[in-house]
């Protein structure tokens, strides 16, 4: 046995020990979403109820949320963009890389690979995308890259020590394939049909293994590729580039004590779904056991219409006689109400349905149903909350597609080596032939050498090209409706983005009616006309702004004049007030002075009077004795 087979089998066994725990839970999730009647039931409960002929209903509430999340991601197609990085890389060559990748994606139907991978991640926690190469031209031996859809995600084991969310740090990977012994003999007639592993449960089938591993050398990394049976190396090649060409797409990822855990969208909702099914079955069982609605009637009132009362559902009108068997007046027959659904079961089912939504973080607004929200804003906010609750699934796909782009950019210079002419696809899906590595396409001025420079990858998400065409067509329709004269210079662009039969032919005819001077310009006429109109609007707006600024300045001057005048008037009033105050103070001083003068005169008069009184003799009045 070859050393590489022993090495591969030992590494595969260790990888299985790590990944089988994740895969086992993922397989259970997939089975839970299947159409098997027992899938959403506990196996023992299901068997017991079936043996006793009791209802075992499955009212699947989960698939609608799975489809909603998956289809929302499909509506926002990731786009691989190539940008110059170093070593003489340039924008023009980056655009060639980008055009080649679009061509690879178209030829590979890459959208289906991306959609399948993220759908597997949503349903079973993990999916994969593969990049491979094949012979394009058998005569020349030219190779081409393509993106491969992985239908059995559990057949791939990547390096369990990889921690990056896109698997870019993986050092090895295994792809196991189960084939019949007859097919093995046809493909590998020189080798014995020995299985790589003994896991096949079919006698006429065996397992072969595709083994990738990275080998570090002084000149860089080499990706070794082996196709192995249980005792032989069936094929041995290398893969172009420096990355393992197997890209994982993870679901919800969590690391606990250094151990990777990956969850599907439905993993934590399965118990609530089982409870919902059990309650629905119990409700049906109670209704089956409940007595049917009966009719109470007085004897003699219904006997003449017995056939109608035996099958009341078949009778449009239930007739009766107004007298009983004795000829007395009798009341009309009364119908008892039918069996009622127990309120407790109804409430429990509603709670179970709410628990399903809560465990996923998705509510009615997310799937377009009416909830407790009353306004459009509230509905949109709840929808956005649902989008954020599952955003990581789409984001993980973007990371993985970014690594797909990285693998392609790294492999393209080694696949497109010789001088050759290749098709590239533009942003609007227009095709163009370009010469590479020294070759020149018709009317091409220079060739592009893909090995020169280093390029990096960035992925953006947005509407698919079909939606972009619809938006472009709608835009030109609105523009030409508002400005009909533009049909003379932009009519070809209007019909260019239409998809009805004959639209492109009409676009070419309209193009012949456009003045040649406009077609000589590299810019689209409609864009030029709109740009000119925009420039005119900008000029008018600038003039209006200048006029407004002038008026604002004039108003400001007037306001300043008014303020100065008001200040002058206030100063005058202040001076007048000060003058009045000063006059008042002067009057007060004068009055005080006069008062002092009067006091002085009175004092002088008093002094003079006292002096005169002192100068005159005293007159003695004799006292009478009274006798």
Notes on the structure:
By secondary structure, the protein is α+β, with helices and mostly antiparallel strands. Among the domains are: 3-78 and 108-267, no CATH class; 465-520, no CATH class. It is built from 16 helices and 16 strands. The protein has helices at residues 3-32, 43-51, 63-74, 91-108, 110-124, 181-187, 270-289, 306-310, 343-360, 376-389, 391-415, 465-482, 487-496, 503-513, 516-520, 525-615, and strands at 77-86, 126-137, 142-149, 156-158, 172-180, 205-217, 220-228, 233-239, 246-250, 252-256, 259-263, 295-296, 334-335, 420-425, 431-436, 454-462. Helix 3 (63-74) runs antiparallel to helix 5, helix 5 packs antiparallel against helix 11 and helix 13 packs across helix 16. The radius of gyration is 48 Å and the shape is extended.
Q: Could you describe the largest sheet, including whether it forms a barrel? A: 5 strands, antiparallel
What is the 3D form? extended
Strand arrangement in the largest pleated sheet: 4-5-6-7-8
Structural class based on helices, strands and sheet pairing: alpha+beta
Which percent range fits the helix content? Answer: 40-55%
- Weakly predicted, low-confidence segments: 618-627
User: How many alpha or pi helices?
Assistant: 16
Gap between N and C termini: 184 Å
In terms of DSSP E residues, the strand content is 15-25%
- The beta-strand count equals 16
Q: Provide the gyration radius in Å.
A: 48 Å
Overall pLDDT score: 84
């Amino acid at each position: 046995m070859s050393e590489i087979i022993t090495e591969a089998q030992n590494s595969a066994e260790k990888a299985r020990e790590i990944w089988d725990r994740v895969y086992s839970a993922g397989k259970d999730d997939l089975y839970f979403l299947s159409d098997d009647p027992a899938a959403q039931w506990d196996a023992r409960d299901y068997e017991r109820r079936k043996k006793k002929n009791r209802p075992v209903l499955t009212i699947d509430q989960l698939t609608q949320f799975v489809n909603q999340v998956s289809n929302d991601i499909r509506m926002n197609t990731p786009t691989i963009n190539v940008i110059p990085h170093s070593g003489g890389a340039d924008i023009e060559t980056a655009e060639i890389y980008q055009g080649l990748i679009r061509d690879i994606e178209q030829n590979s139907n890459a959208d289906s690979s991306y959609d399948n991978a993220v759908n597997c991640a949503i349903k079973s926690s993990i999916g994969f995308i593969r990049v491979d190469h094949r012979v394009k031209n058998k005569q020349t031996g030219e190779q081409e890259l393509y993106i491969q859809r992985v239908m059995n995600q559990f057949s791939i084991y990547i390096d369990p020590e990889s921690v990056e969310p896109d698997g870019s740090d993986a050092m090895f990977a295994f792809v196991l394939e189960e084939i019949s012994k007859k097919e093995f003999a046809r493909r590998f007639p020189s080798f014995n049909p020995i299985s790589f592993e003994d896991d096949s449960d079919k006698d006429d089938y065996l397992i072969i293994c595709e083994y990738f591993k990275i080998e570090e050398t002084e000149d860089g990394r080499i990706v070794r590729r082996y196709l192995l049976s249980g005792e032989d190396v069936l094929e041995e090649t290398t893969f172009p580039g420096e990355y393992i060409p197997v890209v994982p797409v993870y679901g919800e990822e969590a690391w606990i004590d250094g151990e990777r855990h990956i969850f599907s969208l439905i993993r934590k909702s399965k118990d609530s779904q089982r409870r919902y099914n059990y309650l629905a079955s119990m409700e049906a069982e109670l209704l089956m056991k409940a007595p049917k609605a009966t009719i109470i009637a007085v004897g003699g009132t219904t006997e003449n219409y017995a056939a109608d009362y035996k099958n009341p559902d078949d009778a449009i009108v239930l007739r009766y006689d107004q007298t009983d068997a004795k000829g007395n007046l009798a009341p009309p027959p009364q119908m008892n109400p039918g069996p009622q659904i127990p309120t407790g079961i109804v409430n429990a089912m509603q709670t179970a349905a709410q628990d399903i939504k809560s465990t996923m973080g998705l509510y009615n607004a997310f799937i377009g149903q009416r909830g407790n929200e009353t306004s459009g804003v509230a509905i949109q906010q709840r929808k956005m909350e649902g989008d954020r609750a599952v955003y990581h699934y789409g984001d993980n796909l973007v990371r993985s597609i970014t690594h797909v782009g990285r693998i392609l950019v790294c492999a393209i210079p080694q696949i497109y080596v010789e001088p050759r002419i290749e098709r590239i696809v533009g942003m609007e899906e227009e095709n163009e032939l370009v010469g590479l590595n020294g070759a020149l396409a018709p009317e091409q001025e220079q060739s592009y050498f893909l090995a020169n420079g280093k390029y990096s990858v960035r992925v953006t998400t947005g509407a698919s090209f079909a939606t972009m065409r619809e938006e472009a067509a709608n835009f030109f329709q609105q523009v030409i409706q508002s400005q009909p004269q533009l049909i003379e210079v932009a009519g070809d662009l209007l019909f260019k983005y239409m998809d009805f039969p004959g639209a492109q032919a009409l676009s070419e005819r309209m193009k012949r009616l456009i003045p040649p001077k406009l077609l000589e310009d590299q810019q689209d006429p409609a864009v030029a006309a709109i740009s000119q109109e925009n420039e005119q609007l900008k000029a008018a707006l600038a003039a209006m702004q200048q006029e407004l600024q002038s008026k604002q300045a004039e108003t400001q001057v007037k306001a300043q004049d008014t303020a100065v005048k008001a200040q002058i008037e206030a100063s005058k009033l202040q001076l007048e007030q000060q003058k009045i105050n000063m006059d008042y103070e002067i009057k007060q001083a004068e009055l005080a002075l006069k008062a002092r003068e009067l006091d002085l005169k009175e004092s002088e008069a008093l002094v003079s009077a006292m002096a005169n009184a002192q100068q005159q003799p005293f007159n003695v009045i004799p006292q009478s004795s009274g006798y």
